[in-house]
Amino acid sequence: MKKTIATYWPIAILVPIALAAYMHAMNAAEPAPAPREMTTAATVSAELARAVSFGYVEPDGDWMPANPKPGEAPSARVL
pTM for the whole thing? Predict the structure, then answer.
């Protein structure tokens, strides 16, 4: 058993290195993705309306912070 480990340990190191080099070469061969376009206000409002209709966002405005402090305005709601 000791001879087997001594014989094959270089393979255990070289195979992952070769696999990483191959994957890196395949990734470099693919073209870069196109840059994303800016989102328009119409698209954002349509997505918000869709989220409200699916029930992901509450349409009513009764949201309050966890610990409201008197004399302090509530912070903006994050969706």
Answer: 0.35
